[in-house]
Amino acid sequence: MSLSEIEKAVEQLPPEDFARFTSWLSDLASERLDRQFEADVKSGKLDALGQRAMADYEAGRCTEL
Q1: pLDDT for 12-28, tens place per residue?
Q2: Contact status, residue 32 vs residue 38, Cβ threshold 8 Å
Q3: Taking the alpha carbons of 19, 24, 25, 26 in that order, is the dihedral positive or negative?
């Protein structure tokens, strides 16, 4: 099934099914984002960002939210 066919099928869903679909899709997207974030942390991809944030904090370049 192509993306175009999926888009057309989604457009034709009744409101209740569309709501269930969007909830499922949101959950799936969140799970994939979480897995990617965990992989990035484990691989060290975010280490430089963490070090920069800590340096900014220690230098007083941060403000409370």
Answers
A1: 999 999 999 999 999 99
A2: no
A3: positive
